[in-house]
Structures are given as C-alpha cells and as structure tokens.
C-alpha cells in the first residue's frame, strides 16, 4: 500500500516537473544559424533563430533537440557512425562549442534482439563511438560521459524492423 502511494506521489511529481511555463525573456533572441558558428562567441549572437519566442532556454536539452537533434541511429549489430550520424554529430559539436559550460551524457541503446548482457555491451560501444567522435572534433573528454541501457529503454515498443531501427540509437542528454 505504501509503495502504491509513493509511486503515485512520484508520478505526480514527475508530471508536474515536466510541465513548462512560458517565459517572457530576451535571452532567446538571436541572429545565428545552424550552419554558421563564426558568431558564437559574440554575446546575443549564435543563438539559433528557431527558438525565438518559444521559451526555449539556450543551452538546454530542448534547445539541442529543436536546433540540432539528439539522436544518432545505428545499423543492426553495429556501433559504426554512418554519414548521417557524423553530420548530426558535427552539428552537436558546433552547438557544444557555443555552450562551452554544458556537459553531455551519451546514452547507448539497442533493439530487443540479443541477450541483456550483449546489448549492454553493444550500447556501451555505441555510446563510446559517439563520445570518441565528439572528442575527435574538439570537445573535451571531461564534458562527455557515457551510459548504456542496452535494450532496457526502447524508444518504440514493437517487434518489427521499424521499431528495431528506432531503438538502435544513441541519445545525447544535456547534463
């Protein structure tokens, strides 16, 4: 009985914590673009215009998702970064250089096929692959950490090619 009450309380807490309130602040205006990083050191510039008036806090997880993207997808049983993944990670590097005080956690995920142990190891390889690529492009290693969830946290529930493809991923989480 106590567990149910605590679980209900935690659920209400998380739902409340996830709600957003619009902010009237001038910190979301800017003149930069996703393809230009030359103005990122100037105050007020480099903030992406897609966040104007949306209440997205610059340098936040939501900012990363809206302006860059937070997911890289992998082929079956692979931790290799394809051209699309490398392009997205290059954009993440530009974003991380713009927000030099931000650290990230790279989560490695797998589809449901394979053992728990195998998928935890593969998820770690995927997360490390992303981390190593970010480091090779100039992001300090102390700003990037990794964790593997294997098949424990699927993005999509299902036992088909579409679901499996969406679950073979890494997710960049702003720390």
Written overview of the protein:
This protein is α+β, with helices and mostly antiparallel strands and 175 residues long. The protein has helices at residues 2-18, 61-67, 83-98, 116-136, 161-167; strands at residues 71-73, 104-109, 144-150, 169-174. The chain has a domain at 58-175: 2-Layer Sandwich (60s Ribosomal Protein L30, Chain: A), CATH 3.30.1330. Strands 1-4-2-3 form a 4-stranded mixed beta sheet. The longest helix is centred in the C-terminal third of the chain and has 21 residues, at 116-136. Residues 10-14 and 21-49 have low confidence and may be disordered.
Architecture blueprint of SSEs:
Layout: H1 2-18, H2 61-67, E1 71-73, H3 83-98, E2 104-109, H4 116-136, E3 144-150, H5 161-167, E4 169-174
Parallel strand pairs: 2-3
Antiparallel strand pairs: 1-4, 2-4
How would you summarize what this structure contains?
The chain has 175 residues and is α+β, with helices and mostly antiparallel strands.
CATH superfamily (homologous) name of the domain at 58-175: OmpA-like domain
Q: Tell me about the largest β-sheet.
A: 4 strands, mixed
Order of helices and strands: HHEHEHEHE
The CATH architecture assignment of the domain at 58-175 turns out to be 2-Layer Sandwich
Strand content: 5-15%
Classified by CATH, the class of the domain at 58-175 is Alpha Beta
Question: Total strand count, please?
Answer: 4
The N- to C-terminal Cα distance equals 35 Å
- Low-confidence segments: 10-14, 21-49
CATH-defined fold name of the domain at 58-175: 60s Ribosomal Protein L30, Chain: A
What is the topology, as strand order, of the major beta sheet?
1-4-2-3
So how many helices? 5
């Amino acid at each position: 009985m106590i567990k149910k009450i605590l679980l209900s309380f935690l659920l209400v807490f998380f739902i409340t914590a996830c709600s957003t309130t619009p902010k009237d602040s001038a910190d979301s205006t800017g003149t930069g673009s996703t393809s230009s990083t030359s103005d990122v050191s100037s105050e007020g510039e480099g903030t992406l215009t897609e966040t104007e008036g949306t209440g997205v806090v610059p340098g936040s997880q939501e900012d990363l998702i809206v302006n860059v993207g937070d997911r890289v997808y992998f082929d079956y049983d692979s931790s290799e970064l394809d051209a699309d993944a490398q392009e997205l990670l290059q954009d993440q590097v530009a974003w991380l250089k713009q927000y030099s005080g931000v650290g990230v956690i790279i989560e490695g995920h797998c589809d449901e096929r394979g053992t728990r142990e195998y998928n935890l190891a593969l998820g770690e390889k995927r997360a490390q692959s992303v981390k190593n690529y970010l480091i090779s492009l100039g992001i300090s290693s102390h700003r990037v950490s990794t964790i593997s969830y294997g098949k424990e946290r699927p993005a999509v529930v299902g036992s088909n090619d579409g679901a499996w493809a969406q679950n073979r991923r890494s997710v960049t989480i702003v720390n």
